[in-house]
Amino acid sequence: MRKEMKKVLSLVLVGTILTGCAGSGGSKTAGGTDGDKAPAAVEKTEANEEGTEKPYDGVTITMMMNQGTYATTFSGVFLEICEEIEEKTGITMDIQPVTDFMDVIQVKLATNEIPDIFVHNLPQNVKLFNAQENCVVMNDQPWFERMTSPDTVLYEDGNLYGMPIQSATWFPAIYYNKDILKQAGYDEPHPTTMKELYEICEAIKTKCPDVTPLYMMDNDTTRTQLYMTMGLGVALNDQKEIYDKLQTGELKFSDVPECKQVMEDFKKFYDLGYVNPDHMSTRVDDGVLNIAGGTAAMMIADEWVLQDVMNQNPDANMGSFVIPFNDKDMAVMGNFVVAMYVNKNGANKDACLAWINEFTQPEYMDRFNIETGTLATFKDCKTAELHPAVAHIYEDYVQKGNAALEFNAYLDDQKALLDSYLFFLYADVISGQCSVDEMWKRWDDKFAEFQKQNGVLGF
């Protein structure tokens, strides 16, 4: 019988979290060379099929990720694959989904209690994670030459600091239940102004009184901030010089009219009662269940959350449209893919690289890609057939060049501050704890303090 996969579903206290790290007392380590190269994929032999002579028998490696990422991508088929790789290699995967991932990983990096593997955006967060010091460079891994587009994920120094699990990602939009929208009087809606979008919400509220027009999951601020990073990206798309002025102190965020307008437009969904009343206590899983179950009509999400909806209810009739921020018909894209970073100073480094190399093989990646709706990282692996709702955003907007880079991408140097402060300010506004003007003033003060501490001229 297969061993049960070890899972930590909620880690609340940092002290508790630290016990699951690489190098801790309960972690088994693997022998290996001092180099970073992974061995070739482990071949099936009569010996290891019988459960003997597994190359890393008894080794447990830790993999940490955001709770939302676990729910949308690393549960389900991924857990099955982990068990199969364990049978072949002897490596047990200890998956650790955590809330407030960015806070937790910063503590671990600072205290050198880094998990064997941690999952987040690449190359966006290379600097934030100090990956040049903490993580394995993967340019020489056996699977590197099989990648479809390695140049898009290399850091500015030309190195790859993680194994991308996809070649492209993040097609955010409003994903909606077509049947509910039709009941509200809208067949294939395509709002081109914010006024039209509010009218759709009002129609749902009036004609489908038992349905939430727009389901929000604000207990997770990474969900709350989606609207803002998308909206500001579109609103400032033709004024990119503003970002340089913000970075040098020549301009304050509160001086930018679009910052106030996008936040006011966002707040309006809450003020008009279009959002679920319990939004401050709900998370991604709740949104998936409500959309899949037909008790909510629309959600601001990406393709991974949509895939989770379809896994929950394969018969869900889903569509999509872009949010017409500032009355513009434009999509949004990011500068990242999700990847597995490996702790280069951990005792289990060689086992991690061997595990990742095994995971990249078509027998596993084909299933992972198809069942999670992922565009393939490797040329010899099957890629997901995009759901029509995702294909609409990707093919009709992104591939045609009608997509703005998200706001957060221009603030990569302040990524830690976004996660720990700005996202929570957004939540303060929508929960009525502060005004839009007060929010941007607080952010200006915090941003200036951060820039000054880092020696940026102009602050």
TrEMBL record:
It comes from the Bacteria. Residues 1-22 form the signal peptide. The keyword Cell membrane applies. Keywords: Cell membrane, Lipoprotein, Membrane, Palmitate, Signal. Residues 25-54 are annotated as: Disordered. The keyword Kinase does not apply. Residues 43-54 have a biased composition (Basic and acidic residues). This is Carbohydrate ABC transporter substrate-binding protein. It comes from Hungatella hathewayi.
